[in-house]
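ingest -> validate -> predict -> emit
validate: passed (alphabet ok, no gaps, 71 aa)
predict: started
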Amino acid sequence: MCLAIPMRVEKIEGDFAKVEAGKFLRTVNVQMLPGLKRGDFIMVHAGFAIEKLSPEKARKTLKMIRGEDLE
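emit:
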């Protein structure tokens, strides 16, 4: 099973971006999602940004991953 994680873009440097989710900081390839900007939420899988998300969907998904109550 594969898992993609919602992360927030902190800084973009060419085809790569510094992204964070909680305590996790990573550098990922963003060339499949042109037009990203700082503060955008993306789904990251295997070091690649694969989808742009709304902030609401990103927060809901992160809560689910953490096992928090969504109500």
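The domain at 5-66 is CATH 2.30.30.140 (SH3 type barrels.).
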